[in-house]
Amino acid sequence: MMRIDILTLLPEAFTYLNYSILQRAQTAGLVDIHLHYLRDFATGRHRITDEPPFGGGGGMVLKPDPIFTAVENILQDHQVNDHPLTPSPPHPIILMTPQGRPFTQSIAQELAQHKRLLLICGRYEGVDERVRQRLVTDEISIGDYVLTGGELAAMVVVDAVVRLLPGALGAEGAAETDSHATGLLEGPHYTKPANFRGWEVPEVLRSGHAGQIARWRRQEALRRTWDRRPDLLLTAVLSEEDKWFLGQLAAGEA
Ligand code: SAM
User: Fold this and answer.
1) What is the rounded CA–CA span in Å between residue 155 and residue 161?
2) Atom 19 of ligand 1 has which residue's CA nearest to it?
3) Is the pLDDT of residue 83 over 50?
4) Is 138 designated active site?
């Protein structure tokens, strides 16, 4: 079973994890998610977790001490070394930050291989730099925009990772054919009715021909990727037939 720890000042925000596939994955014992309230690790009568930045400037910064204490408590077996990468801590300690590496499906696949993850959610102006330099082993951004806190970003990462755990999707879908899993965007889907307001479902999907359906789906995935994200075609794994079809698209013949 995978274990995910999340350190946050806003544990209430995580109710999303209690529904649908994420909830079922927890009930089925595929993942064990623990929320930790950062204030519980702060000391003093007021349990202060943030202070104004040295040097002035607006906003507040999350103090290093409650974050270090929290991580050391959560990963009891992990002593924080002078530098966290030598030797590597046993589990990724991930800071959610708009300055991190841009989150992708392949990063989700990489994270899904670990037995345990720890995600740290920032707030205000972010966290004291020493957390980034001395504690975390990874920094992830969910996109080039700035959120109020790391909670939504952490939920995005947890959702994308948990649905990849074997058994998480059940009969609901196959993660292998999702957009980005294959390096391409997924093609269109249709369901009943076959004719909706005069708009027909493509004949091939109703033909019952598994081979033709698979070929059509592959070509529509290529078409969609060509139209919307041609950059993905530079790194996607393509067969000779795929390349021929892309040639047809380029010539305006498909
Ligand atoms: N002052 C910081 C900066 O310019 O890099 C932004 C701080 S942001 C207002 C507060 C917190 O939200 C961050 O510490 C981070 O945890 C989270 N956050 C904001 N945008 C994010 C993004 N795109 N991806 C991941 N986390 C994000």
Assistant:
1) 10
2) 147
3) no
4) no
